Amino acid sequence: MSMKTKEEYFESIRKLNLPVYLMGEKVNNVDHPIIWPSINSVGMTYEIAQDALYEDLATATSHITGKKINRFCHIHQSIDDLVKKVKLLRLMGQKTASCFQRCAGLDGMNALNAVTYEMDAEMKTEYHQRFLNFMRIIQEEDLVCDTALTDPKGDRSLSPSKQKDPDMYLHIVKKDAKGIVVRGCKAHQTGATNSHWIAVFPTSAMKEEDKDYAVSFVTPSNTKGITYVFGRQSCDTRKMEKAQIDVGNLKFGGQEAYIIFDDVFVPWENVLIGGETKYAGRVVEIFANYHRTSYGGCKVGVADVLIGATSLLTKCNGTSKASHVKDKLTEMVHLNETCISCALSAQTEGSRHASGGYLVNGLIANVCKLNITRFPAEISRLSQDLAGAVIGTTPSEKDFEIPGGIGDLMKKYLKGAADFSWEERVRCIRLIENITMGTGAVAFFTEAIHGAGSPQAQRVMISRYSNLDMKEKLAKNIAGIKE
Question: What is the mean pLDDT of the chain?
Fold first, then answer.
């Protein structure tokens, strides 16, 4: 099968008929106004791959079949692949100004490629061949795979097996000759209801007593026993108002959902880690390194849009020539380019894995993500600083149509510089609001902090990778201190 078009992707998701709940009701996933913008964002990953202008960036050659595939289905085969991935993510952020929900799946598949290979090499298992069989399906049918990693965790002071409720971490409840049965929940899952397959990971390293929780598998998203509960976002019901201005981002958005696994059967051919605790932490670490550099691409692309909207609004406000305005816009660009530079550095300093895939540099990956936990927030603060109080006080677009002259007066008083209309100014205001405090802020602000691990997780890994012993030896040599 050739690569899907955007329209073919939409129809394929519609056919899944996933059990999705939103605001207490079972809803039509594809056509619901709150969910549709996030599906449209994923659609852009298909549209970009069909565009000859972006062919080199958005497509790749499969190492399994030798065919041209969507890069979001690719196992990195070179440093060039790693670099193109980050550049593609920035482009996608620029095109959607939102989360486009395929980074986690891409990063998860690449982590599984490495770890299943390591497991087979050490234990003579068949996990890697199972993984390659799965990848063939993903690539041949041009499918979206979601990586589900985060568990609810319950009492975080206790390990999985010590929880009062064992379902606080997804776990194996039964094994037989045909496969396994799992129960639990995966929380905060980006793009969950937009995916054809779910790749489940353990949430962290596991001890031997937690072996039932050391599980990774792939399963179709419409497998019996799986239910989705859609997460709320700030200002999300504006999408139900058929607004043209107030929604901010007219066409695109992100999504997160809770995935409930209620005694879901998984055949052995889809199990990729089946209790091997040694590899639970390993697969999480490799995934996290990939995903932490992904943030240095996608968030930068969204910030490009935010910086552009902020610059345009200063022109609407008549403040663009002020020196302090220029300085703050320059600082926003500086912070943003620092993020992408770090992300690209982690790719160029990557290395070949024994499987033939390529890994990113772990230290720089975590430095990149730690920057992302801070810099988008500062870019957002500077944007609101330059925009002014209108970000929090602008009336509904319906108020501009109040009869009896009030609507006309609102248009008069919301107008800024002579070269710009009231509507242009308000559209800029709403876009900045969307990205910094509305639905878009889930991806640009909250996700930037907690996605791919909280800031403390990055500090732990930076400390682990820091190689202080080597640095101490350098200092001793320079200072003349003998060992």
Answer: 96
Report the distance separating Cα 483 and Cα 477, nearest Å.
Answer: 9
Known catalytic residue at 190: yes
Residue 169 among the catalytic residues: no
Asked about 45 being catalytic, the answer comes back as no
Any idea where the domains of the chain sit in the sequence? 283-467
Q: Which CATH architecture has domain 283-467?
A: Up-down Bundle (1.20)
Q: Is 295 a catalytic residue?
A: yes
Predicted confidence (pLDDT) per residue in 409-418, tens digit = 999 999 999 9
Q: What percent of the chain has pLDDT over 90?
A: 96
For residue 142, is pLDDT > 90? yes
Q: Which long-range contacts (CB under 8 A, 24 or more apart) does 386-391 make?
A: 386/310, 386/313, 386/314, 386/319, 386/325, 386/328, 386/329, 387/310, 387/313, 387/317, 387/428, 387/429, 387/432, 388/317, 390/414, 390/429, 391/429, 391/432, 391/433, 391/436, 391/437
Question: What would the pLDDT profile of 89-120 be if each residue is shown by its tens digit?
Answer: 999 999 999 999 999 999 999 999 999 999 99
Q: Which of 276, 397, 433, 447 is catalytic?
A: 447
Catalytic residue flag (residue 126): no
pTM: 0.95
Q: Specify whether 348 is catalytic.
A: no
* pLDDT tens digits, 284-332: 999 999 999 999 999 999 999 999 999 999 999 999 999 999 999 999 9
**Candidate list 73, 103, 342, 368, residue with the active-site label:** 103
